[in-house]
Write a structure and sequence with these properties.
Length: 390
Amino acid sequence: MPSSRPDRIRKLLADLVGFDTISDRTNLPLIAHIESYLAAFGIKGERITDETGQKAALWVTIGPQDQPGFVLSGHTDVVPVVGQDWSHDPFKLIERDGKLYGRGTTDMKGFVAVCLAMAPEMLEARLKTPIHLAISYDEEIGCVGVRPMLHEVAKKKVRPLGAFIGEPTQMQVIIGHKGKHGVRATFHGLARHSSIAPDGVNAIEYAAELIVEIRRRAVALAAARSTDSLYDVPHSTLLTSIVHGGAALNIVPDTCAVDFECRGIGITESREVTDAIVAWAKAELEPAMKARHPDCGIDFEEILDYPALDTAADAAIVTLAKSLAGRNDHAKVAFGTEASLFASMADIPSVVIGPGAIAQAHTPDEFVEMAELEKCAGFVERLIAHCAKG
């Protein structure tokens, strides 16, 4: 292992990027690699495996087990690269002009690499307050993998004092983000030859009525914008994102699926908005479909759900984060993170702070600046010093 901190970070990030951990694939080889790396320092983690046995999260405690500590949390999964125009292999780390390129460098293997690189320093500091590493999976498809881990954390006798979730914020302290609720509405109509279209029940046309209603409510949400100026989009948002339906031009379509989402400012607002839309569709659209044929109707399925984050600006975890980051500002963001689940599921006060810019996340030729990783390492170094004091 390279001796200098920047070289350790580069080496670890290259290792992590080298694992193809797109969310539809196993992350076990990556987890095994991290376990092996930590074992070399005598550090053992707790694996929390999912029902399939193909995914696992890792909970690591460095320092006393019987004291409340602080969590450094990051996810290991990345978004797909299919259809993106990369100039090089996305799963091979490339460095150019102080930028480290590769899938997941910003979102968010760079943060995980920094935390792992600092593990030896955590050991050497003989911490009085423990530092926990929480390494999860399937964040990109709805913050799925952190939930079983948080169920276990919530059972522990000693609850952590707070959590730092290392999503890319350019090391700005983020105290809030919107929640999200996603729903799939599947319309079941009645197929007929298009020449006798009135005898059928057109699933796409009824789905279109739902889409128009979603759009109408989205406009109303935008008009009722919040006074919370910390958000760059200061209101809840609602949109239709995916529509699938129809088989041929000369067939009345008997199925149509519509995916829609709300990102709400309030803790539970996103679900409240989508629940109201579902209730409207069941009251207004489904009876009209069943009146045409009793087998017609709409099925609704939840496809994604996480609450909003709203940490008080004067909370102790926020004050500490600002001190460690060497800055006094804070903000809120529209994108979601696992921070809200740390707060809601395990009652752990949380902020989001990590290296890199969200504008780089999910893009071809994704990169993180080495300077950002070094800033993050400084943050962790100061956290270590803080925890060494007790």
